[in-house]
Design brief:
alpha/beta, five-stranded mixed sheet, two-stranded antiparallel sheet, 16 helices, 7 strands, 7% strand, globular
Length: 488
């Protein structure tokens, strides 16, 4: 079964059982589905995983081997190779990776050093920087300097991706080395063959967005995107997705990939926002730059030379009394900047960005209320004010460009904070019509449907998401949806 294909009833029952850790039932259902249609490598992968969960190692290995034989170029085959490496058996087709060269475990193989979580002996910060513009919801986010190296995974044989070239892989190391040199190589990285254990994951897709967005110079399309995974005030992973074709079907060349990778790797190291100076690598629209500006270097040096709000280490159990104050100040700074940009440009993108800044301000107030009043705290009135301001400006942006799916997605997130799940579901439906290839829309739709107790529809949306993103099956977002679906 290829990603995105319809899932038969036996397979669907098996996935439901697997999600709820009822592995014996999952095995039975998956076997029945494969008996009717053996050409389902992803279902076979889930069957093998159920065997692993029930300690039936040899049966799991045989299923993984069958995937490699039947569909060697599929996404399931890539996952099967990784699973075989973990099982470490003579039946595997590749020898286990040397742990001394390519570590596959985040915590067990990397000691945590003592001392301040910041680098010293960095290049002096001479001149301007844009540190205030790269915060995530007002928080500075980066990899911990006390737990090195940063583990990097590159998909070297992406299934179903056309125009993939070996030179693209080299662009990842080149981009990393350029950024690391800006830190005097005081932050180290190593490659790993484990997607699950990697800190930074580089994946390849044919295209990223299907519509593009209107700008002052024409229509702009995403050539790359970086998705941070931050949970419980801890940076868990950064996922980079690179497109091998532009939206018009033209193949991207190695030189173009190199420039885009340099920009995306800046995001992956913690520069989560954008510069407003087109001379910087981190300018919002890629200018095909192949070296860092002084502002790029200064910003990264400040980010890693100062204490951050969120790192890859768990937060200290002792509450930082200045945390909320720092976040609030950065959010105010970001709002002022986005208000200025929206007033000058007044286009769809600038209004959505302003709405997101308002939303972040409200979200920070919600998180503060949870700390003082608990998870079930009512929505603070001031937070509701910020959410409604966000709702208005994003709606204004949507009115300017009704074909841009990201506006509907962002508005759906705001509707949920305002407890208006029906409106959120409508916006997600519109976004999916505009861009049915965006996997996260199915995940968000599954969450909203689960909250509305429309469980069959929620399971269907979740199954589509997992068919497209099988490596996210154990993620916190998926577990949250599964827990809600399992509730009476």
């Amino acid at each position: 079964m290829q990603a995105g294909a319809a899932i038969g009833s036996d397979a669907e029952q098996g996935l439901f059982a697997w999600h709820h850790q009822r592995y014996a039932l999952a095995i039975q259902a998956f076997r029945q589905s494969l008996a009717l249609n053996p050409n389902q490598p992803l279902i076979r992968y889930y069957l093998a995983d159920a065997f692993v969960k029930t300690r039936r190692k040899r049966e799991a290995q045989l299923q993984y081997q069958r995937i490699l034989a039947d569909a060697p170029d599929s996404q399931a085959a890539r996952l099967a190779r990784q699973a075989l490496l973990k099982l470490e058996s003579p039946l595997t087709t590749r020898a286990p990776v040397s742990q001394s060269k390519r570590p596959n475990a985040k915590s067990s193989k990397r000691a945590i050093a003592s001392g301040p979580d910041a680098l010293t002996d960095l290049p002096p910060v001479n001149g301007d920087d844009y540190l205030g513009e790269i915060a995530e919801n007002g928080r500075l986010v980066r990899w911990s300097t006390l737990q090195q190296p940063v583990l990097v995974y590159i998909d070297r044989s992406p299934a179903g991706v056309r125009n993939f070239q070996p030179a693209f892989v080299a662009s990842v190391s080149k981009a990393l080395n350029i950024w690391m040199q800006a830190l005097n190589n005081r932050l180290r990285y190593e490659m790993t063959d484990s997607l699950e254990e990697a800190d930074i994951r580089v994946l390849w897709v044919n295209t990223i967005d299907g519509k593009g967005q209107s700008t002052e110079t024409g229509t702009s399309y995403h050539a790359g995107v970086t998705i941070p995974e931050i949970r419980d005030r801890q940076l868990r992973a950064m996922e980079i997705r690179m497109a091998t074709f532009d939206i018009r079907g033209r193949p991207q060349g190695a030189r173009h990939i190199e420039a885009v990778m340099l920009h995306e790797m800046g995001h992956a190291l913690g520069l989560l926002g954008h510069s407003d100076n087109l001379d910087d690598v981190m300018f919002g629209q890629n200018q095909l730059r192949f070296s860092l500006s002084r502002r790029d270097v200064n910003t990264l040096a400040r980010l890693y030379g100062e204490l951050a709000d969120i790192t890859s280490l768990p937060p200290s159990p002792e509450e930082d009394p200045q945390f909320a104050e720092r976040v609030d100040a950065r959010l105010d700074e970001q709002i002022a900047k986005q208000e200025s940009l929206a007033g000058a440009k007044g286009d769809n993108l600038s209004l959505v960005n302003l709405g997101n800044a308002y939303f972040a301000k409200g979200k920070a107030l919600v998180e503060q209320a949870k700390k003082t009043e608990g998870v079930g705290a009512p929505l603070p009135p001031k937070a509701a004010e910020w959410f409604n301001k966000a709702l208005k400006v994003i709606s204004d942006g949507i009115a300017l460009d009704t074909r841009a799916p990201f506006g509907y997605y962002n508005r759906a997130v705001i509707y949920q904070e305002l407890r208006q799940d029906d409106a959120a579901l409508t916006d997600l439906g519109t976004a999916l019509k505009l861009d049915p290839n965006d996997a996260k829309l199915y995940r968000e739709k599954a969450w909203v449907l689960a909250k509305l107790k429309q469980k069959p529809e929620a399971r269907a949306a979740l199954n589509v998401y997992l068919a497209r993103e099988p490596h996210k099956a154990e993620s916190a977002e998926v577990r949250r949806i599964q827990n809600l679906l399992a509730a009476p």
